[in-house]
Amino acid sequence: MKQIILDVSKTSGTISEKQIQNRASQAESCNRELEKGTGKGSDFLGWLHLPSSITEADITDIQATAEQLRAKCDVVVVVGIGGSYLGAKAVIDALSGSFDYMENKKPVIVYAGHNIGEDYLYELQKYLAGKSFGIINISKSGTTTEPALAFRILKKQLEDSAGKEEAKNRIVAVTDKARGALRTLANKEGYKTYVIPDDVGGRFSVLTPVGLLPIAVAGIDIRQLIAGAVAMEKSVSANTPFNDNIAEIYAATRNELYASGKKIEILANFSPKLHFVSEWWKQLYGESEGKENRGIFTAAVDFTTDLHSMGQWIQEGERSIFETVISIASPKYKVETPFDEQDLDGLNFLAGKRVDEINKMAELGTQIAHVDGGVPNIKITLPELNEYYLGQLLYFFERACGISGYMLGVNPFDQPGVEAYKKNMFALLNKPGYEGLLGNTK
Ligand code: PA5
Q: Are 144 and 112 in contact (CB under 8 A)?
């Protein structure tokens, strides 16, 4: 099996190879801190050796539950927000057929609890009406408003349509082992449950049942996903020297770029299937590093689509950005450009070429243009888009995020800033105990 490749050579117009090398010992020591558990937030390092600690029994159990849901349900609603939603969505979207949802493939996976949109919930209820559906309710704290509200509404719909007893067979809760309202509810109702370990934070939880259960329900091979993550766990360990350690190199490069004035990192892809991988990454890095008035702002674009919108800004806007591109070396399928006798569209110069050859030239052309325009470019290449390499990519980003956060000097594993809006919302909604707290973010 191959490994994903990291190339930071196209950052050299802004930072030198020597500057990256100067960060080597800091990156290595931050990686060792993760390993030894001596850094900030060290009670949240359960993700570090999570891939290699998943047992065959864990996988079999998750797959059995997934099979039960697949057998019983035409639709499975995954309820969760942030780290309790994005990992599953990222993997499922990346590895499912783009038009599966239109082809009557069962079960259809839909999402709820990641917004408070009344129209969204109305339309979801309408879509579920008359269908055999199940729910995976995911919340580590078990108290997050968005998923709790969506679950309350959907649970009622399921119980009303399938009966309370059958509903219990179609609801799975993924939550804390002892605390929170969802744990109390699940125990009382007798739902099948999975535990999110105390020491794994939401955005690092994709390889726990938070991600693995919905991914398995979607029919994706979680064994291969885990195998890829295990390979990367070994490859970027604190024992691997800096020049062979892609997590350390990525962390060092982005910190050096940040120090040189590049405040925004744009994750770009050339495959629409990766849109939610970028959303997952955006949360991982944004929530981990954006604190104490520091941190790279994480943004994402889908190319070539967004070259026709954000391309102008990236090429000629304020020079405060760098770009990290995820490239897929070989697509799964083959589509060739046909020859056309009349050639009215003038595309016969492409006749016989695969669509991916054209995409790759768009990718190279974009890289050259953006680097010329003062946008340093980091490139991550996956040999193929499959479970194994996606598993590698997820763990690579997690490990690099831990190292990078430590290099920045913050605790990458907390998110105190997320509480501010909640406090105001609860005060505005007259939640008991929140009286007078509006605007009081301290
Ligand atoms: O990364 C995080 O910790 C957050 O994004 C959480 O995952 C998110 O807020 C959802 O929390 P919970 O799973 O407790 O409902």
A: no
Question: For residues 272 and 98, is the Cβ–Cβ distance under 8 A?
Answer: yes
> Rounded to the nearest whole angstrom, what is the distance from the C-alpha of residue 31 to the centroid of ligand 1?
24
Ligand 1 proximity of 147 Cβ (cutoff 6 Å):
yes
Residue 78: partners with Cβ closer than 8 Å, 6 or more residues away: 85, 88, 89, 109, 110, 111, 112, 136, 138, 214
pLDDT of residue 258: 98
- Going by CA atoms, what residue is nearest to atom 5 of ligand 1? 82
Pocket of ligand 1 contains residue 183 by CB under 6 Å: no
Calpha distance 429→442 (Å, rounded): 19
d(Cα 194, Cα 12) in Å, to the nearest integer?
47
What pLDDT digit, counting tens, does each position of 77-136 carry?
999 999 999 999 999 999 999 998 888 889 999 999 999 999 999 999 999 999 999 999
d(CA 241, CA 434): 51
For residue 210, the ligand 1 atom closest to its alpha carbon is: 13
DSSP, res 320: -
Residue 23 neighbours by CB under 8 Å, 6+ apart: 252, 253, 255, 256, 407
- Which of 108, 100, 148 is CA-nearest to residue 131? 108
pLDDT digits (tens, 9 = 90+) for 393-404: 999 999 999 999
Give the pLDDT mean for 217-230. 98
Supply the Cα-derived Rg of the chain in whole angstroms: 23
pLDDT digits (tens, 9 = 90+) for 30-56: 999 999 999 999 999 999 999 999 999
pLDDT in tens, 424-440: 999 899 999 988 888 86
Across 1-15, 195-209, 321-335, 419-433, least confident range: 419-433
Domains of the chain (ranges; CATH) run 5-41+227-413 (3.40.50.10490), 50-225 (3.40.50.10490)
**What strand order describes the sheet that includes 75-79?**
108-112, 75-79, 133-139, 171-175, 192-195
